[in-house]
Amino acid sequence: MDRFLFLTFDGLSRGAVYAAFALALVLIWRAGRIVNFAQGAMAVAAAYVAYSVTAVTGSYWLGFGAALLAGLLLGAIVDVAVMRLVDHRSPLNPVIVALGLVLLIQAVLGMVYGNEYLPARTPFSRSALAVGGTPVLSPYDLFVFATVGVVGAALVWIFTRTAIGLRMRAAAFAPEVSRLLGVNVGGMLTLGWALASGVGALAAMLIIPTELGLHPHAMDLVFVSAFTAAVLGGLDSPPGAVVGGLGVGLLLSYVSGYAGGDLIPLAVLALLLTVLLLRPGGLFAPVTARRV
Amino acid sequence: MGGDLLTAEALAAGYGPVPVLHNVDLRVPTGTIAAVIGANGAGKTTLLRALSGMLRPTAGRIVFDGRDLRGTPVEQLVRRGVAHVPEGRGVIGELTVAENLRLGALWRRDRAAAASALDEVYQLFEPLARRRRHLGHQLSGGERQMLALGRALVGRPRLLLLDEPSLGLAPRVVAQTMALLRQLCDDTGLTVLLVEQNVRSALAVADQGIVMSLGRVVLAAPAARLRDDAELRHAYLGF
Q1: Rounded mean pLDDT of B42-69?
Q2: Could you report the per-residue pLDDT of B90-145, keeping only the tens digit for each?
Q3: Residues 106..135 of B with a Cβ closer than 8 Å to A: which?
Q4: CB-CB under 8 Å, A170 with B103
Q5: Alpha-carbon span A164 to A170, nearest angstrom
Q6: Which domains does chain B have, with CATH numbers?
Q7: Which of A163, A173, A185 sits opposite B94 (nearest CB)?
Q8: At A256, which CATH number?
């Protein structure tokens, strides 16, 4: 029972990060109907910025802030300088370009920082606090929950309560009508990319210290897990991404706890396959009206 | 009053290599309603899209309020005082009634004026006020029409471009809409250019009828003449 409890909390903590990362995928999917396969690499690039800033200043938090800023900026740049120029008539084009971006970013990071694991710090202890003799949650887990919670709430607030959020939703749903109503649709798309990439950078900052460390490929498996989470929730649904993220986190935690850590990639792919076979629209797929 | 709010001279436009509009001339005096009528495929919708810049004209001039409208980005159009309600009315189904309306006023810097314009629209279209929190796709056809029109009006436009406002609506709702347009023109000096297949109801309120056929303007005449002159009607409208 102790083991089960520990694995559950550990899974929820990882799941919160997957949820954030899946949310970033959903944001871009909703804004531009693109699955951003480069999101993992972009997030790693932001984490390297944090590494450099922390190395120079000695402050974890300055590095953390720098990573978020770098994430926002990188998202905007990728939209304006790359995705905007891609012919979107075939949905395959942005996918291929995003995969190319992955190779480019990982190659550049490897040349600048080297292809080896660099140590990544956590701001709080990772040893679990015991409740009634059972180790459950570490201070770092609490930090992860709080950060993801705050970011999720902030996104909900932006999209439902602010004028800019209304513009972003309108631009995504009906670009032509939005332009007639004076909405800068291109600007909203860029903003969506920036926000998503910022959330992705945050997720990378949260999860990299809990794994082997900083490496150009550090987010590869996280991306696959988060992508599975996003598909599980239905790519269009932000609540679905959160539920999917927590679900995938739990599953992987149980698999690695009871069956062995080597099976994690296999479990992710098996889950992805199952979802795509049984419910390709995801658990939270909205009823789609047939367009005539 | 007096003078033309909108004129087009020798306007040509099309999709890719296929020309649709040829040499279109029209003038819409301030504070009047002009009805563009004609069969399917006559180029009516294309004309509206070219006027609002959604489709770049290949030749000709568009002058709005004394200034050339070509080259104005579509996003800037509302700020110049032109509202375009597209075919199918363009209500965003995923947003609520209140959000759709708010969107129409977002570009306005003067928040107080925007808020009072919103209130006015809720008074003008009472059913919308009752369904504020409903999603756009939950509305009936008539309510969507109100929403699209209301959303254009919160921007306080000087020129309203309407594409097929009667499409799919009950005759009584069409008559109400047309009467409302007439009232807005008379009371506020709004200028309307509407594209319509429903010739009778359009001509009933319009000042001017512009008949299009195969991408050309074949006749522009006072609406009353088109309505009452049986020979003209037979020749150009086929009834």
Answers
A1: 89
A2: 899 989 999 999 999 888 888 888 899 899 999 988 889 999 999 999 998 888 98
A3: 106-107
A4: yes
A5: 10
A6: 1-81+159-239 (3.40.50.300), 91-156 (no CATH)
A7: A173
A8: 1.10.3470.10
